[in-house]
Design a protein that fits this description.
The protein has 249 residues and is α+β, with helices and mostly antiparallel strands. It has a domain at 129-244: Cupredoxins -  blue copper proteins (Immunoglobulin-like). 30% of the residues lie in helices and 19% in strands. It has helices at residues 2-24, 32-36, 44-50, 84-96, 119-127, 221-231, 238-244, and strands spanning 67-72, 75-80, 132-138, 141-143, 146-149, 154-158, 166-167, 188-190, 195-200, 210-215. The strands form 3 sheets. The chain has a 4-stranded mixed sheet, with no helix packed on it. The protein has a 4-stranded mixed sheet with strand order 5-10-9-7, with helices on one face. Helix 6 packs antiparallel against helix 7 (238-244). The radius of gyration is 70 Å and the shape is rod-shaped. The termini are far apart.
Amino acid sequence: MFKLKLVILLATAAFIISACGESDAPVEQGSPAMTETAPASVPAQEQTQVTPPEPVVEETITPQEPEAEAVTDKGVQRAETPPPAVEEMQQVVTEATPQTEPVSEPVAEEPAVTNEAPATAITIAAAGPPKTHTINAEARVFNPDIIYIQPGDTISWINMTSHNTVSVDGLIPEGATPWRGQLGENLKVTLEKEGVYAYVCEPHIGFGMVGVIVVGKPANLEDVKAYADKNLQGPFRRIISKLNKVAIQ
């Protein structure tokens, strides 16, 4: 009985020693003992020292669109810059669109206005279209007995049943063509040269049937008066009174 107890005691001691030796030996990875054996408990004081403090999470704001920052004394000023995609699009549009220079419309130059005009234009403006003026033979007078016309106009004598019309030599402008109508002829004469023209009805000159035609500006008026006063005789001197009534316009 004593031996049996001794054997049991030795076996128990051997088991305890064997168990202590296995707990100190390194455990291989994947060993069943590691998965089944719970880790040794750590005292509460050691757990408090080992537990790391909670990390402080810093909030970082990442802008979706990059911004260019300009630092000034008063702080940060943000200047928005378009994303790379927008810049590329603008560059493509700029390259695709041709740069055209503004086209200036030609300005029509106005002709210079001067006070001078060609001589032909002045003559046409003063004379206007050619006209026909009528002188009526009434009994023993021409009506009108003094008439004013423009160069190129025509004189038409009418009702010349017992009359005629004849220009007087020396009493027409130099170079002008004289005329002589037949008795009873309704004559027409176109006068081109400016000046004074004197004419008479030969059958009735004694009754004072004389007339004067003033064409344009009568530059020869004084010369005609001087010639008439010096050379006209008899009833022809009736012409002088008509010349004295001419009004220079």
